[in-house]
Amino acid sequence: MCSETPEIDYIQLALDIKDWGRQLGFQQVAITDTDLSETGHQLNDWLAAGHQGEMRWMSEHGEKRYHPEQLLPGTLRVITVRMDYLTDNSNMIATLKDESKAYISRYALGRDYHKLIRNRLTTLTKEIEKAVPGAVVQRPFVDSAPVMEKPLAVKAGLGWMGKHTLVINSQAGSWFFLGEIYTSLPLPVDQSSETDQCGECQACLKVCPTDAFPAPYVLDARRCISYLTIEQKGSIPEEFREPMGNRVFGCDDCQAVCPWNKAASLSDEKDFTPRHNLDNRELAELFLWSEQEFLKKTEGSPIRRVGYEGWLRNLAVGLGNAPTSETVVSALRSRESHSSPMVREHVAWALGQHQQQKRRKRKIINTLNRQSLPVNEGQSFPEG
User: If you average pLDDT over residues 67-83, what whole number do you get?
Assistant: First the structure.
């Protein structure tokens, strides 16, 4: 005699999933369906404009990026999670303003989030499977597959898409990571209550040093410092080098100036605590790291992906923008004969900057393919 499969209470299961997620350290867990048709059109327009630059994978995989059921057949719902990562913001602006210091994007100061979040999402999938009789199709993702994590997070109610193209949560700001679980379970979906609350504010658009936003809600990655210092594999175009300032890995300006981040939630996740004092290091000091030091001190860090040559390239630009001193010039000269042509090129540019002794250009304006947007070059960070 066959026993009947017990009926699943999906409403209770959804509540349990959210509870398990919070126990695993996620600040928010929400569920949405797989309809991203509108987002698919926006993505294709963005790609057609060439805003992806060298990120060719953005145009790969066809419709799988905005059709989750094609990426993982059987997918009916997406469980999306939020994990806050900002552990301390006390010296962020001070570091940006101290041109002898290296500014590294806050997300990259601690352990690489990919492995941490993926492990916890895997644990969550196992909890779900234990609670559900029979086969369940599930797969966790953390910024590692053609998954449109930001539109999914918005649909699930984790926030709204800001004009800087990052998700903003009214209670937590935007300093958080996202992760997803594609699942075949017909869970009840959450209704978003986080409508767009950017209003007339354009602080993020105006503060961008390289003018990477041709319009609100549109990012031209080719002009973004995060792209230039991480995704760009060759030389950094000269027009962007002075505006880069001391930003040597990523850029947080558009988040740092956002009013919604004034009361951003701080994370107590120890893995996100800055390693090797990377939140307060001199440019010249980091530039003198050997390749062995770089590999050792960036083990398990997002910074590792830029590679040693990319690291030196970025730091050379930072040193070119730093106040002239014997320490800075000496550090640069120590790499004049580096084996990498790319490093030598950026070192030569940086030394040339110190010979010119001119005030660097802190912001540039892109006048091509730009929608009407009031420009206020007076936009800056608050003191302190």
Answer: 96
- Range(s) of the domain holding residue 25: 10-87+107-183
Between the alpha carbon of residue 18 and those of residues 12, 164, 231, the distances in Å are 10, 28, 34
Please, what is the average pLDDT of the chain?
91
- H or E stretch covering 180: strand 176-183
Which residue reads 């040339």 in tokens?
Answer: 352
Residues 305, 230 contacting (CB under 8 angstroms): yes
Catalytic residue among 16, 98, 143, 190: 143
pLDDT tens-digit map of 254-278 = 999 999 999 888 999 999 999 999 9
Distance CA 156, CA 170 (A): 14
Angle, nearest 10°, between helix axes 341-356 and 307-321? 10
Whether residues 284 and 329 share a domain: the answer is: yes
Last residue of a domain, one of 149, 183, 217: 183
Please classify residue 320 by burial: count the beta carbons closer than 10 Å to its beta carbon, then call 0-12 exposed, 13-18 middle and 19+ buried.
buried
252 catalytically annotated: no
What confidence tier does 5 reach under pLDDT thresholds 50, 70, 90? low
